[in-house]
């Protein structure tokens, strides 16, 4: 990866985007611009599961609120890759932010999309484990059953 690259991973717990991991504070700040404006390549990748390749943000007009703020923060190029669940639904996005336009080469894009595919598998496993832990915790909270409030059936 180029040295001018920052990375963030966004997931949607409770249907709201949240940066759950990042290489630095800069990536978090750019993610937060997207969350605040309600637009940007990360949010689009989360919505439709399609990769967003933005080699030169200054020349891209897709996000009129996000674009100028991201440029002012120092972002010039972006690659947002969806993280896909086993049932083919987007559950997150892996975002790369570049300080220099055109820093995103085909080789970097290939490597990053391969990594995103592996990250999708790891996140799917983490979600499955979280669901199992939640089920066990819920079951454990109700076991053993409280028999003191159980009344016998009354037969008329």
Quick summary:
This protein is of the alpha+beta class.
Report what the structure shows.
This protein has a single domain (5-129), classed as 2-Layer Sandwich (Beta-Lactamase). Helix 1 (25-37) runs antiparallel to helix 3. The protein contains four helices and five strands; from the N terminus they run ββααβαββα. Strand 4 (77-84) and strand 5 form a beta hairpin. With 156 residues, the protein is an alpha+beta fold. The model has no long low-confidence stretch (mean pLDDT 84). It is globular. The chain has a five-stranded antiparallel β-sheet, sandwiched between helices. The termini are far apart. The chain has helices spanning 25-37, 41-48, 66-73, 106-141; strands spanning 5-11, 18-22, 52-54, 77-84, 90-98. 42% of the residues lie in helices and 21% in strands.
Note the main attributes of this structure.
single chain; 156 residues; alpha+beta; Beta-Lactamase; 5-stranded antiparallel beta sheet; 21% strand
């Amino acid at each position: 990866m180029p040295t001018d690259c920052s990375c963030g991973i966004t997931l949607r717990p409770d249907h709201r985007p949240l940066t759950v991991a990042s290489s630095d504070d800069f990536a978090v700040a750019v993610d937060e611009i997207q969350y605040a404006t309600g637009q940007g390549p990360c949010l689009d990748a989360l919505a439709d599961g399609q990769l967003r390749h933005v080699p030169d943000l200054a020349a891209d007009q897709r996000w009129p609120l996000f674009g100028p703020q991201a440029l002012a923060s120092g972002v010039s190029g972006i690659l947002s890759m969806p993280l896909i669940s086993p049932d083919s639904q987007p559950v997150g996005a892996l975002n790369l932010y570049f300080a220099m336009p055109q820093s995103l080469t085909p080789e970097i894009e290939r490597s990053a999309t391969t990594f995103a595919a592996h990250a999708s598998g790891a996140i799917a496993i983490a979600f499955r484990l979280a669901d199992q832990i939640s089920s066990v915790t819920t079951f454990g909270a109700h076991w053993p059953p409280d028999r003191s409030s159980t009344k016998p059936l009354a037969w008329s």
